[in-house]
Amino acid sequence: MDAAERKQAVLSVAFRYLDTYRELLQEEGERSNSFPKELYLCAVQELSRYPELVEDVLKLQRWTEILHCPSDEEKESRKKQVRPLFRHFRRIDACLQPREAFRGSDEIFCRVYTPDHSYVTIRSRLSCRVGEILALVREKLQYSEDQPVLPGNLILVAVTSAGEKAVFRPSDEAVFTTLGVNTHLFTCEPSELDSLLPLPEEIHWTPGDSKLHDMSAEEVANQLVAFDWELFSCVHEVEFVCYVFHGEQSRWRPLNLELVLQRCSEVQHWVATEILQCQSLPKRVQLLRKFIKIAALCKQQQDLLSFLAVVLGLDNPAVSRLRLTWEGLPGKFRKQFQQFESVADPSRNHKSYRDLITSLRPPLIPFTPLLLKDLTFLHESCKTFHGELVNFEKMVSPFTFTMDTETSPSHLQTKAYVRQLQVIDNQNLLFDMSCKLEPKDT
Amino acid sequence: MSLSGRPNTVRLVFLGAARVGKSALIRRFLHDSFEHKYTRTVEELHVLEYDPAGSGKMRLEILDTSGSYSFPAMRELSIRHSDAFALVYAVDDPGSLEEVKRLRDEILRLRGGKSAPITVVGSKADLKDTEGRVLLAADVMATVENEWDADFVEASARTGVNTVGVFRALLQQVNLPHRVSPAAWRRRDTLPRRAVKKRPPLKKNNSCVLS
């Protein structure tokens, strides 16, 4: 390979990088432009010696322009958006609209609670640092002259429904998407930390009266798969890399990837919640059948994320201990579920899951937690890597999921239901419910 | 008693157009202060714990909502989970009174015939005709009290006049003793007499005098 070819090879890697990161770089503005600019200047100097580089140099010049001034239209569409993140506003008005990818510069509304469970709602960038969040909260909290001590020393804490607390550092960034299903942000003074209590469970329907009973397994599975596709196609390839390789220092936060992971855990808890809220034994058996059917349909539609999430939800100890319920299940379903469970079996490095994946033809939605585990392993075991890291095309080909356009009321109802699942994610509570349904002795 | 579904908890919700002074009224009541700078509210929940008659602790929740951002589903939820409603308009903004009418219709629809304890609040009551007031207390009061069968009060967060009256009306509607004692309540006795004389709290029994 001669010198010109080597230079061209370098440039082609650079173009590949720019192509992949285009949106993210554009969003960063000026800062991101220094790399193509410098490269462009270097390449121009070489041009007299290597005239064959002219095409590439022109291309590079175009890139510096692209990154220099993103089109006004694009800027406009970015600016106006303030989106309630679904975690904090459970019933967002836009839940039926297709999901769009979140970017760090997007603004969201978020509730921040105080120890007495009152709250303020702040408006902030998704990528906001904790210090900035606290400044916004402080501004909202300090209203009066007669308040002797201004709350100067506030901390931001994530409190799970089970009461576990995690204190954020002021330098932490983009914390919103990292919160668990029923985890809320609290603010308090350090001395109040121990007294923080989780919010009461926010389940608004009465036990045994779930809407799920009136929906067919097909409908629910279709909506689960459709939503997963939406969520998954919001994830930029780079987010995988950021998640695994850079950890906290990464330049971009893997926001959309974190939301996919959150969804996975939400579906798991949804399954357990629905079963444990169901008081009558025959109905519970029905529900169990329905979930196994839903899992089968998700698998059939190659959505391994929801498939395994449902299976793991049924494997929750609070559900699997319900002996009477499982005994009521026809043998056919029990057998099918055992098969499903074996796919979730981690032995021999998840062999059966991997066998399943290789037997499927893309497009498919992978079980994302495992994908990330593999990437981490790859990262930690290999110093260098060759070729493509993730064969992403295999996971998400330019496949656009064709949503069925049917819009009957029941269809919309299912869609809304699936997109705002109400779940209990407090394992202790789930276990208590389980013991109430079928006491230990029976 | 509580529609919010929790025992010993009462929730009041403030609804109304943007910039009518919902947050300012609440702030005056809770902290006896007034901020001239306008900031848009998204949604805030204030909590007061008090013991009305030594009969056990009550939790009073005051939900401040957004007039500027439109979240129909959020508003629906707040209407379903509240015990009494303050519908706030500004006396210098006829459009905000229209919004109050619309909100009332929405509340009645969502409550499906169940009684809805509504207090209509004319905010910025310190404004005189020369300062932009276009809605007269007597006119609005006639509509609200006769046609809507709801309560009516005027108040000013800037001067502090009758902000306590707003909360008194709300608490009376949910049959609660209204001796809550945040800042504004304590302040009542020290209120400059001049202000009281100038704009006495609007109650039904002196409505003739005012018109």
UniProtKB/TrEMBL annotation, chain A:
Ras-GEF domain boundaries: 216-440
GO cellular component terms, semicolon-separated: plasma membrane
Biological processes annotated in GO: Ras protein signal transduction
The keyword Nucleotidyltransferase is assigned to this record: no
Alphabetized GO MF terms: guanyl-nucleotide exchange factor activity
Keywords per UniProt: Guanine-nucleotide releasing factor
PANTHER family: GUANINE NUCLEOTIDE EXCHANGE FACTOR, RAP GUANINE NUCLEOTIDE EXCHANGE FACTOR-LIKE 1
Protein name (record): Rap guanine nucleotide exchange factor like 1
Organism of derivation: Sander lucioperca
TrEMBL record, chain B:
MF terms in GO: GTP binding; GTPase activity
Pfam families named among the record's database cross-references: Ras (PF00071)
Stored InterPro entries: P-loop_NTPase, Small_GTP-bd, Small_GTPase, Small_GTPase_RasD
Membrane topology: Lipid-anchor
Entry's localization field: Cell membrane
Superkingdom as given in the UniProt entry: Eukaryota
Keywords from the named record: Cell membrane, GTP-binding, Lipoprotein, Membrane, Methylation, Nucleotide-binding, Prenylation
GO cellular component: plasma membrane
Main location group: membrane
Region (Disordered): 188-211
NCBIfam families, per database record: small_GTP
Assigned protein family: Belongs to the small GTPase superfamily. RasD family.
Name of the protein: RASD family member 3
Organism from which the protein derives: Sander lucioperca
Gene giving rise to this polypeptide: rasd3
